[in-house]
Amino acid sequence: MYSEELYKTDPEIFDVVRKEAEREHSGLELIASENFVSEAVIAALGSVLTNKYAEGYPYKWTKDTDEIDYSKYGRYYGGCEHVDEGEKLAIERAKELFGADHVNVQSHSGTTANMTAYFALGEPGDTLLGLNLSHGGHLSHGHPINFSGRFFNVVQYEVDRQTEQIDFDTLLKLAREAKPKIIVAGASAYPRTMHFERFREVADDVGAYLVADIAHIAGLVAADLHVSPVPYADIVTTTTHKTLRGPRGAIIMCKKEFARTVDKVSFPGMQGGPLEHVIAAKAVAFKEAASDEFITYQKQTIANAKALAEALTKLDYRMVAGGTDTHLMLVDLRSKGVTGRKAERRLEKVGITCNRNTIPYDPEKPFVTSGIRLGTPALTTRGMKEPEMANIAELIDELITNIEERDRYPAIKAKVEELCESFPLYPRRRTEYKNISAR
Ligand code: DSN
User: Fold this and answer.
1) Once rounded to an integer, what is the mean pLDDT over residues 137-161?
2) What are the tens digits of pLDDT across the range 370-413?
3) Is 80 inside any structural domain?
4) Which of 51, 196, 409, 425 has its CA 20 to 30 A from that of 151?
């Protein structure tokens, strides 16, 4: 209904939106960190809540006890009674979903959530022990060009050369040498289970705080299909837009003893006005994530990842760490003589979207890489199951094994589009866009 207004005011931006909806529908989205939100989430995002300034919180901390009091007005602006309700719902639903003592729902992104966690627990110059980016970690886990690498004394751990998984004896040895203030357990390209209980043992041994970043696996954790870090970590951060299938943004969960500090570091320490439209959309996503349907979805996401990994293995692709326990896999392309960069670019030409990714101990530069990362959350949201995963593995293989034969690309693209047509994405929305632009 309101797209008409956008078209009248700004046909160029309308067209950007229309074309992106078509791209999402007509391609196979295998970027492990992406997903397709519900129309309900989009409705909350595109709402009047974007108009409201609401610095502060929908509660006040009581003076003497570490309790939040929703009956007290904690904002620096008037007129927050409705956004207060939305933020309260987001907080309470997230607490329930993850079993956390306290949740701050205001983080704009995973990186600012991590920044908040580190500054809540440490000071610039403290030692931070995080997983190396090229071994599956994240920029905000201590990369030298990121704030984390510039503000903290970073020591990085790596995966074992043989198993390509975290070896906790090696990690313990490194932690004893480095004596970190904070250990970060989390990854953006680690296909196997993150054993948070083992991280806790290491942290306890060296007297470090433990931050768990579950940006990728939050949906699996919420559905109880992956070990939860909540009982083990002092602070848990997550984005809300990956497996969790909410709006782009993040939250911070923590034990009660850190709650007040986390809130203070987030605002006024780190951010200004919270994005109340995004927070309301987070609340919607948490409600959706508490449903049985969401558990079924996450089970299928894992089953699809296993099916895709198995089908590719049969086609002679090597899976890093031997396969997957989660929603993602890392594919080593060296046996095919194709780099990650080339595979990413050429796959895109036939409508298959993924990202190049370093594999552990990668001989190629990070901009080139020997691998690609594939994930199944978005395709599973569309309703695809194991048979489609086998089909997709064949389409990927057809492209990779004939990568220099560009005349074959149109036929592969046609097969991709045919598959996508059977699993329509945002059909009402796309029809509306088409009708408006046809006028
Ligand atoms: N950029 C995200 C990913 O793709 O994993 C992590 O923040």
Assistant:
1) 97
2) 999 999 999 999 999 999 999 999 999 999 999 999 999 999 99
3) yes
4) 196
Inside any domain, residue 423: yes
For residues 67 and 99, state if they share a domain: yes
Say how many Å lie between the first and final Cα of the chain, rounded.
14
Q: Which residue's CA lies nearest to atom 4 of ligand 1? A: 33
CB 9 within 8 A of CB 333: no
Q: Give 230 Cα–ligand 1 centroid separation in angstroms.
A: 21
**What predicted TM-score, i.e. pTM, was given to this entire model?**
0.97
- Which of helix, strand or coil describes residue 29? strand
Q: 61 with 185, same domain?
A: yes
H or E element at residue 7 = helix 3-9
The protein residue whose alpha carbon is closest to atom 6 in ligand 1 is: 188
Domain that holds residue 272: 42-289
Residue 17 lies in a domain: no
Give the number of the atom of ligand 1 that is nearest the alpha carbon of residue 239.
7
Told to judge if 242 belongs to the known catalytic residues of this protein, a careful annotator would answer yes
**Chain segment 68-125, per-residue pLDDT in tens:** 999 999 999 999 999 999 999 999 999 999 999 999 999 999 999 999 999 999 999 9
Give the CA angle between residues 391, 24, 341 to the nearest 5°.
70
Asked, for residue 270, whether it belongs to a domain, the answer is: yes
Q: Quote the number of domains for the chain.
A: 2
- The CATH number for 142's domain is 3.40.640.10
Catalytic residue among 84, 213, 332, 398: 213
Which one of 237, 239, 326, 381 is the catalytic residue?
239
Q: Whose CA is nearest to atom 1 of ligand 1?
A: 33
